Amino acid sequence: MTLRADLLILDGRHLLWRTSDAFRTLSTEVEGGTVPVGGVYGFLSVGLRVHSRYGGKVAVAWEGRRNFRVDLYPSYKGRDRPPDPERLEIIQEMIHQERLLIGLLRSMGVRQYRGVNCEADDVIGRLATIGKRCRATTIVYSGDSDLRQLVGSGTYAVSPGKSSDTLYNEQQVVDKHGVPPVLIAEYKALSGDSSDNIPGISGVGPKTAAALLNHYGALRAVCRAAKDGDEGWPVAERFRASIRSGAEDLRLYLKLTRIRTDAPWQPIRPKRSQGDLLQQLRTLKFRTLAAPAELHGLMNMGK
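-> structure tokens emitted (303 positions)
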């Protein structure tokens, strides 16, 4: 039986970029110019499928225009390196598609939230926390493994795949990463996260990080044991010195990997109108999405 959600949270930019790759050849003529719209089409198509499968009130989370993590660590996600011309062109195209998509979602009546000086992850963390307080069954739909730290107490993460989705409950997070959801941020701080350009402690890989955290229960306790020479140290002795000397770095890395659940956000007010949505879909030449059944499904996402 498929899990049904009370609250379905979509990771806006992550899903937009993912689907733009799948529909990268799709473009249309708008106001005399050709614009790529594959990400917008893909997002709406996937959104329809996901909402049909899991249900729930839909909320979409967007990145803030600034990010406190970059202020703390300028190399975060390689932001200190200027993009090459090809990458810059892609970024500009995606910014345009994001604006188009936000307008469509507003017409659908979908709730949207943009982070203020934070990432979409933090917006999702706040939404998931609200869902937990309301005892709602919450599904976070994203391939970003950072979000698995939110799993637990009725909150699930679903990662999209080429043939099927992968649903994570607490045990499945342990099976995948070797640590429970509550330790994911500390695990990534210790072992590093190449996708976010977080180096972790040199030489400490995922298995070593998991062994230490499962043994001591928290990163702070790992650092204390490395400093004090704890006799029960469960991994090779050579890691003591690396962790001891990198303790200050670990405190910084944990600030980067831990999702905030109280981050400020800016709501993007919906302006629900089936007529406006239909006009936008026709302008973008999304004929299949403008068909009666699909149009009805898109409007249902905003209820």
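The domain at 7-174+264-298 is CATH 3.40.50.1010 (Rossmann fold).
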